[in-house]
Amino acid sequence: MPADPANGRREITVSDVAAAAKVSKATAARALGDYGAVSEAVRDRVRAAAEQLGYHPNALAKTMNTGRSNSIGIVVGDIENPFFGQATRGAADVAKAAGFDLILLNSDEEAGAEENAISVLLAKRVDGFLVAPASTTVPASLHPAVESGRPLVLFDRVADGLDVDTVVADNLAGARRLTELLVEAGHRRIAFISTIGHEGDYRLGDRLGSSSVNDRVTGFTAVLGEAGVPNPEAFVRLNARRDGVDAIVRSLVDEGVTAILASDSLVAQAAFRTLRDLGVAIPRDVSLVAFDDADWTSLSDPAITVMSQPIHEIGAEAARLLVRRIAGDGAPTEHLVFPQVLIERESIAPPPG
Amino acid sequence: MPADPANGRREITVSDVAAAAKVSKATAARALGDYGAVSEAVRDRVRAAAEQLGYHPNALAKTMNTGRSNSIGIVVGDIENPFFGQATRGAADVAKAAGFDLILLNSDEEAGAEENAISVLLAKRVDGFLVAPASTTVPASLHPAVESGRPLVLFDRVADGLDVDTVVADNLAGARRLTELLVEAGHRRIAFISTIGHEGDYRLGDRLGSSSVNDRVTGFTAVLGEAGVPNPEAFVRLNARRDGVDAIVRSLVDEGVTAILASDSLVAQAAFRTLRDLGVAIPRDVSLVAFDDADWTSLSDPAITVMSQPIHEIGAEAARLLVRRIAGDGAPTEHLVFPQVLIERESIAPPPG
DNA sequence: TTGAAAGCGCTAACAC
DNA sequence: GTGTTAGCGCTTTCAA
């Protein structure tokens, strides 16, 4: 007695409806599934029988035949992170409008978990993938998705050497602008903090595991270099997840850094707390800027100057692109880049002294 | 040529692997699926062939036979809301550990969308449902889920007249405590604000559409009544989504209210902004307290006194319960209630004057 | 327009 | 331990 969970009842099938309506299974299926040709009379009769019996179509059986599941797999770093919450919502709305549902998996930014997620989605025969890749330099975990032939759209990050559609924000320009603001205010000792993992000290030209962080670091060090700051790479602090933002900020303050650029709002939040606990005044003692217009950044005292990204739209656009690919759009690979917008608030001041 | 998307290739099946390994389909399936009895030699041979051919199991076909899809449907109000982000993450982790994936749908707190979501999940033959019901007084949209015989666990809210498991926080006690704090500080004109929809003015005994908000209002008015405040129900402001928190707060200030209890952190955030824009000092002119320890509440100036809920744990526990039910646990319906914990900060002061 | 029959990829008896 | 044979619930030829 398969196809039924623990409880006793058997699901109503097309056969049951067909029998009740006194037509063949094929005809009942046509009437129920809205395809092929069915006379109006028969159609109504079948529908009535279905209603009467409480028929619920089995989408899985349909998928077995058509090869289409009407589901999209989405792999995010962590759905609890507001960034992914917003992107997922944007994607969900577009997907739903196009008749797709989302199967959601968290990767925790780990390649292993990501590969696992892809494999689960592959087994469930999703029609396409939406992923914020954990590693954009070694996107091996994405290969199975690519090889499956099902469309894959990357969002928030691009991946090296993978010919797939991507939807990201202009992190390079955003980082440049934020850094310029700090430099113009007179800062020279500016630190960049990110949670991204990286072996050893950061050196100019190193490729970071996330293309977006990579672009941010590149923009940051470039502007610093142009401003005549020697060894700008020495101001890049990575591995903040492992080492702790708190510890990093403390040592930065000791080292006399006068400004901090946080790579995301979670890092900024931790840095803000540490500075406050340390009694270091923002922006009088240390200036602080960040990416993402998280809600707290406009509520804190002082409010934080941020580079805002159209997160919702990035998710939505990625889904739109994916839906088009699923529909068979064979246009060349697209790489969409959304502009970021600066929101100036009160967290920048000239360096002290 | 079914079972394959737009592109040309055909998926590798158990039959292909069986042929390559020169065994029967059944044996290949046993080796691949890790069930039944297979000799080690054959098992290795089959696995090697599978690897070689690039075999990926079709979970859907498996579901057709076993009746188990290893997916759980989760219906939340809005995944962009931090509350649901956290609860979903809690649920996702437990689900994954038990071998289940999540199919995520947003209801926007509308019964229609919720019913739709349930029907989609039913068609996809999820093994169980996790839902934060849009309406707990008229849970009609949940009936199809209940009738399907597949387990359903409600979280954050209970539903009237539905014999299903629920996992919620103790909103009544939480609201009482928060209100007591305000009363003890000397407040008498205290307003309660929620986005929940309600026809006409709130009257004592009205059942609100969300059991959690209902409990909060009940606790709030009870404490006010015990403190001798006449007509406490007059201080309950609902429909804030429709009318706007901003407009409500402005009129409240005009009416000389000296304290506000926000039903959730999103309402609190909007209220905080309005008070700030109005130049009304918190807590000197108006005290403000809220539910949920959202990150901004400890970063704002002043930091907000809140009633914190174990959101992550609520999601996790709901998933744990559901997984047990799916496994066939026939124990009586459970109603889990988690305590809320008060976090005192600086947003309460005696009323002015 | 309708029906009969085959088949999607897998599991589950049952026999050997 | 292995193979044979039926299905799961649907769609899809192909005839009638």
Description:
Chains A, B: Keywords: DNA-binding, Repressor, Transcription, Transcription regulation. Chains A, B: One of its GO terms (molecular function) is DNA-binding transcription factor activity. The structure is a homodimer of 353-residue chains. Chain A has three domains: 14-57, no CATH class; 71-168 and 311-338, 3-Layer(aba) Sandwich (Rossmann fold); 171-309, Response regulator (Rossmann fold, 3-Layer(aba) Sandwich). Helix content of chain A is 42%, strand content 14%. Chain A has helices at residues 14-21, 25-33, 40-53, 59-66, 82-97, 111-123, 143-147, 171-184, 211-226, 240-243, 245-254, 265-278, 311-326; strands at residues 71-76, 101-106, 128-131, 152-155, 165-169, 190-193, 236-237, 259-262, 287-291, 305-308, 335-338, 341-343. In chain A, β8 (259-262), α12 (265-278) and β9 (287-291) form a beta-alpha-beta unit. In chain A, α1 (14-21) crosses α3 (40-53). The model of chain A is unreliable at 1-7 (pLDDT under 50). At the A-B interface, α4, α5, β2, α6 and α12 of A face α4, α5, β2, α6 and α12 of B. β2 (101-106) of chain A pairs antiparallel with β2 of chain B, so a sheet runs across the interface.
